[in-house]
Amino acid sequence: MFDVEPIIADHKDVIHDVVFDYYGRRMATCSSDQTVKIWDEDGQGKWNVTSSWKAHSGSIWRVSWAHPEFGQVVATCSFDRTASVWEEVIGDKVSATNTPTRRWVRRTTLVDSRTSVTDVEFAPKYLGLLLATASADGIIRIYEAPDIMNLSQWPVQHEISNKLPLSCLSWNTSTYMVTQLLAAGSDEAATPTGKVFLFAYSENSRKCVKIDTVNDITDPVTDVAFAPNAGRTFHMLAVASKDLYIVNLRGVTDATDISKLDIQTIKFSEHNCPVWRVCWNMLATMLISTGDDGCVRLWRMNYNRQWRCAAVLKAEGSGPTYEPAPPTPTLATTASATAKFYKKGTIGNQVPWH
């Protein structure tokens, strides 16, 4: 079902992030070697580097693609306390037979943070061209490009302060229940309090405010990811920490007719080590997690609506292993388990079989 094929990335140091674009045909990687690489998939399914450049003067932690409606735009963040927005521009053809030259141009550098910028992510398309950054100083900054044709201007729209340093963030792509819902995690280890925070836009105060904290997760958090909404009446948030967590967020109304979030946390310890990254597929039917065990684990929901590990992809090119799945009940097995038989009578004068 799954094939493991290594890609020689040719980065000179640790790769911190790998992100696909909206269509899954392009890929961006960033590393501690201070470079960003853009990969394109050819007709044979092979990935080739089409652009590579030095983007920052420190380790690059994260990279994010904007929606293709806004063009080929990526954002990066770094230990050098900045975040940058890059746009791909197409030059003239060198000759009639050659393809046009492409290069990535820095459109702006965001220098508001006084500490390392640990995460950066573009907002869902329906919100416009918004960009959120999380910093080690505990501040989430939301920028907006008022003119998508001029990506050099990114004024700050919101600043959300938090007492703990932040390591990651994720936008919720759904408009159900809460608008502009944002989750952030902290990798601070000294304070035994909740490490996942939920923020939303408040119409009363006209700004983004913290609305809740996931108190069940007290270990340092390295990644958070909202699941795409596919018609559900609740939100799912995957959290990478000492273990893997799936947080279900439902809207409820109390006795005073005030709406609030009902938070349910499910813990998975199959990694037996710290989990580093989590991501969902397009329909939120599969969750992928990676950890210190060098394995990629694929999770699926079974017929009982319980998440189970479906496969484990191991490093060093070894093949995938599949977790045994519980048998799905059929109509015959269900009937045999519930059917009852009663004696109605006796048939006499039986004719022997010939």
UniProtKB/TrEMBL annotation:
GO CC annotations, alphabetized: autolysosome; GATOR2 complex; nuclear pore outer ring
PROSITE patterns assigned: WD_REPEATS_2 (PS50082), WD_REPEATS_REGION (PS50294)
Family of this protein: Belongs to the WD repeat SEC13 family.
Cross-referenced SMART domains: WD40
InterPro entries per the UniProt record, alphabetical: Sec13/Seh1_fam, WD40/YVTN_repeat-like_dom_sf, WD40_PAC1, WD40_repeat_dom_sf, WD40_rpt
Predominant subcellular localization, coarse grouping: other
GO biological process, one term: cell division
SUPFAM superfamilies attached to this UniProt entry: WD40 repeat-like
Repeat positions for WD: 8-40, 268-302
Name by which UniProt lists this protein: Uncharacterized protein
Subcellular location: Lysosome; Nucleus envelope
Keywords, in A-Z order: Cell cycle, Cell division, Lysosome, Mitosis, Nucleus, Protein transport, Repeat, Transport, WD repeat
The keyword Protein transport belongs to this UniProt entry's keyword annotation: yes
High-level lineage: Eukaryota, Metazoa, Ecdysozoa, Arthropoda, Hexapoda
MF-aspect GO terms: structural molecule activity
